[in-house]
Specification:
The chain is built from eleven helices and nine strands. By secondary structure, the chain is α/β, with parallel strands linked by helices. Keywords: Transferase.
């Protein structure tokens, strides 16, 4: 996998949360806060870091928050976006990703890709020679977790040294991105999940338990995600049976720290991975988390084109 420097020409990509050096993440978060503060002052408070550029959103999976937050971010940064479902392209008829990327790289200024295979995003970035963003694959959801860390720090200060508990499908893309982030940002991640969903810990800061109670103990952040990810619909009944004990509910919250935050990356299936009661009680935290995708991705896109503004512009 390529790192943040991307290709030999110096093009930046964001394919994994491991692509962003932590010192640059700190600067990116600072600018995300400034973009958030500036937004009520639009258009005067807008930094046009993507002016005169066109970005393609190449999606093979359905999307609500990812599509909205990226399209609005690009527009508010002065750029244009083209939403391109895989099914509308020659990819659906067998054209290779390499050929698609080589053409798009000559026409567009950046690409945001949401698909099943991580390898497709990596291949596109190799051939297109334009900034490429992983907007979700089966292996990672780096934009989500980057924004989640920002959302935590916005409310509780640095995540370094904190305890994050993920409950549910420990093999999902969000959990995997959290695992990569743990060592880079210096927090402990405890994944409460059935053993069949475990994967090798990428660092000594990632721990596993089959007990949801142990995972929630003294947590600073309780986090859950859907039990049946896109492409796993055929496993729905089996997954729901296995994961039912890991439902995020008020009894588990009581095991965490008194000021624990509750996050869900959405969409939420209330009564399954989280109770409706707890979701509504923590809706403000969860919706703040969803909104922050816009602000963090504005900073991320500006970082990719090496144009973090020199002043907030308000």
């Amino acid at each position: 996998m390529m790192g943040s420097s991307g290709t030999e020409s110096g093009v930046r990509h964001f394919l994994s949360i491991g692509d962003l050096p932590v010192e640059e993440a700190i600067e990116l978060f600072r600018w995300a806060r400034l973009f958030k503060q500036a937004r009520p002052h639009l258009p005067q408070g807008l930094g046009y870091t993507l002016a005169h550029t066109t970005w393609v959103l190449l999606f093979s999976k359905p999307s609500t928050r990812t599509r909205l937050s990226f399209e609005i971010a690009i527009r508010e940064l002065g750029g244009e976006s083209l939403f391109l479902p895989f099914t509308d392209l020659q990819l659906a008829r067998g054209e290779s990703m390499a050929d698609t990327a080589r053409v798009m790289g000559r026409l567009a200024h950046g690409a945001i890709i949401r698909t099943y295979a991580q390898a497709e995003i990596e291949e596109f970035s190799r051939w297109a020679s334009i900034p490429t963003v992983n907007a979700l694959s089966d292996e990672e959801h780096p934009c989500q977790v980057l924004s989640d860390i920002f959302s935590f720090e916005e409310k509780r200060g640095s995540i370094q040294g904190k305890r994050v508990a993920f409950l549910g499908d420990g093999s999902c893309n969000v959990a995997r991105s959290w695992a990569i982030a743990a060592s880079r940002f210096g927090f402990d991640l405890i994944i409460g999940s059935p053993h069949c969903f475990w994967f090798p810990s990428p660092s000594e800061r990632v721990f596993w338990t089959e007990s949801p109670w142990e995972a929630a103990q003294e947590a600073d952040l309780l986090y859950t995600d859907v039990w049946v990810s896109m492409g796993k619909e055929g496993e729905k009944e089996a997954r729901e049976e296995l994961l039912r004990p890991y439902q995020l509910r008020s009894e588990l919250v009581k095991k965490a720290k008194p000021d624990v935050l509750v996050f869900h990356c959405l969409p939420a299936y209330k009564g399954k991975e989280i109770t409706a009661e707890l979701f509504e009680a923590r809706a403000q935290e969860i919706l703040d988390q969803a909104e922050n995708r816009l602000h963090v991705q504005k900073a991320l896109l500006s970082w990719l084109v090496k144009k973090l503004p020199s002043s907030p512009g308000v």
